[in-house]
């Protein structure tokens, strides 16, 4: 039964679209991110309710049953996900969105076969949605370490990728000219294969960038679905996701010092991050928690550089308590945040906010880098690639050109690491072997707890 008039439907869709825009604005800052997330969720709920009240739907019980089943699965699954696994969750949700858009376009094809514009939108949605679905599945498997995280390149891969891409384009043209469902199914299969082939050569620190790119693809498929279904809100929402995902992808690639094409195809010319896990046997200077406590306790200025290891160890609360203890002793403490620290932008900001670290002591890379030369101790907790001087000094390095935190300028550097394994990019860090560098091996939470106890006893 239709309850809402077309006029009220349009007004409420407009309200939902404004909510999505305000949500993006809120998500641009850690201070307003929670509010932005809630506004976006309200907009999505409003949009769904409007669809039910403004459309004559068939199979209502089946639709409600599927929604209930999805809710029963998604709510506990999302609550079980740890902060360190958020990129995997994003990849999964993104892939499901792209796949759903492709399937909806397939189902709508017989109804719009006489409209050339709509058939073009169907072809676009099926191809890009299939690429997004299969590509996201591969990124999830890599980040979850269900398959090797390193780039996977097989002989003749560029030729195979090119042939599959050309076949996909030919199938899209076939579909547009004939509106034949067989062409749509061929396009779906080739698009799925193309997504796998494009993502397999991506490895190491480049995988989160590809997740963002595929997220943009999914947004564009949703926008195209809006054209197929004649739904303005889908068109607006998909365009917003596509545009914001594209901007984020470019920002992440820029923060890594590489182009988007270099991220996708760098492995074919040796320019991708390698994802090596080999441990170095070069000698380093290690220390005890008590020695590190003395360094920190007698410093005037300390800069903490958090990384993925802090998130894995769930050591943010201990780190925050250590910072508070040092500040109580009159020591200035600042947190230096790299744009891609962790495995996605904002990862460290969210983690430290959870531990009630004030926003005022968080400094972005451009702000904190000039401060390292006046810093007594740089405390690196679980970070590696974002402080690796090879990005500045080694033209042959896969991360050469990537902007980094200038930790090497600090008077003393303390690394908290589990082992001598390289970071996510799989590149040895020469800063570990510099004379001003000390390493404290162990789980970050255990090490910080020992350092905190020793600092309190000074």
Q: End-to-end span in angstroms?
A: 73 Å
Question: Could you name the ranges where pLDDT drops below 50 across 5 or more consecutive residues?
Answer: none
**Order of H and E elements:** HHHHHHHHHHHEHHEHEHEHEEH
Major beta sheet summary = 6 strands, parallel
- Distinct helical segment count: 17
Q: Choose one word for the global shape.
A: globular
Radius of gyration: 25 Å
* Portion in helices: 55-70%
Q: In terms of structural class, how would the helical and strand content be classed?
A: alpha/beta
Number of strands: 6
Share of β-strand residues: 5-15%
Average predicted local confidence, pLDDT: 87
Catalytic activity: NAD(+) + NADPH + H(+)(in) = NADH + NADP(+) + H(+)(out)
Family: Belongs to the PNT beta subunit family.
Subcellular location: Cell inner membrane
Pfam family, one: PNTB
Mind explaining what this structure looks like?
- This protein has 458 residues and is of the alpha/beta class.
- The protein is 59% helix and 7% strand.
- It has helices at residues 6-26, 33-54, 60-80, 86-112, 116-143, 157-178, 181-199, 207-229, 232-255, 260-265, 289-297, 308-313, 316-328, 347-354, 365-368, 390-393, 444-456, and strands at residues 301-306, 332-337, 362-364, 377-381, 412-417, 437-441.
- Strands 3-2-1-4-5-6 form a six-stranded parallel β-sheet.
- Helix 16 (390-393) links the parallel strand 4 (377-381) and strand 5 (412-417).
- Helix 4 runs parallel beside helix 8 (207-229), helix 5 runs antiparallel to helix 6 (157-178) and helix 13 (316-328) packs parallel to helix 17 (444-456).
- The N and C termini lie far apart (73 Å).
């Amino acid at each position: 039964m239709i309850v809402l008039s077309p006029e009220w439907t349009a007004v409420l869709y407009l309200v939902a679209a404004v909510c999505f825009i305000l949500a993006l604005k809120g998500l641009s800052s850690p201070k307003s991110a929670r509010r932005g997330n809630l506004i976006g969720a309200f907009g999505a709920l409003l949009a769904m309710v409007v669809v039910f009240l403004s459309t004559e739907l068939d199979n209502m019980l089946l639709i409600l049953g599927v929604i209930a089943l999805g809710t029963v699965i998604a709510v506990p699954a999302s609550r079980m996900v740890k902060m360190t696994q958020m990129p995997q969750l994003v990849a999964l949700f993104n892939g499901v969105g792209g796949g759903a858009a492709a399937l909806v376009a397939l189902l709508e094809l017989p109804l719009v076969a006489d409209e050339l514009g709509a058939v073009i939108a169907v072809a676009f949605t099926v191809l890009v949605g299939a690429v997004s679905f299969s590509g996201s599945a591969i990124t999830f498997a890599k980040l979850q370490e269900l398959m090797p995280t390193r780039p996977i390149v097989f002989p003749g891969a560029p030729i195979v990728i090119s042939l599959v891409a050309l076949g996909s384009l030919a199938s899209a043209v076939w579909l547009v000219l004939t509106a034949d469902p067989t062409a749509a199914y061929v396009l779906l299969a080739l698009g799925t294969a193309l997504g796998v082939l494009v993502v397999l050569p991506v490895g190491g620190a480049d995988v989160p960038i590809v997740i963002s790119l595929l997220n943009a693809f999914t947004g564009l498929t949703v926008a195209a679905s809006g054209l197929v279904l004649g739904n303005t809100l889908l068109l607006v929402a998909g365009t917003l996701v596509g545009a914001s995902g594209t901007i984020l992808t470019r920002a992440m690639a820029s923060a890594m010092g590489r182009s988007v094409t270099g991220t996708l195809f760098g492995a074919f010319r040796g320019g991708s991050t390698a994802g090596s896990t080999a441990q170095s046997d070069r000698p380093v200077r290690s220390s005890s928690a008590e020695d590190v406590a003395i360094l920190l306790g007698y410093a005037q200025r300390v800069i903490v550089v958090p990384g993925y290891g802090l998130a894995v160890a769930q050591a943010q609360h201990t780190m925050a308590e250590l910072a508070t203890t040092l500040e109580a002793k009159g020591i200035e403490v600042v947190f230096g945040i790299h744009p891609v620290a962790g495995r996605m932008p904002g990862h460290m900001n969210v983690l430290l906010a959870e531990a009630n670290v004030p926003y005022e002591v968080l400094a972005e890379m451009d702000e904190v880098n000039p401060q390292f030369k006046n810093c007594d101790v740089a405390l690196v907790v679980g970070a590696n690639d974002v402080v690796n001087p090879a990005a500045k000094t080694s033209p042959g390095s896969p991360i050469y050109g990537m902007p980094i935190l200038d930790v090497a300028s600090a008077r003393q550097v303390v690394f908290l690491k589990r082992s001598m394994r390289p970071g996510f990019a799989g590149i040895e860090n020469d800063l570990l072997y510099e004379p001003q560098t000390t390493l404290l091996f162990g789980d970050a939470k255990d090490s910080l707890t020992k350092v905190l106890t020793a600092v309190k006893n000074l």
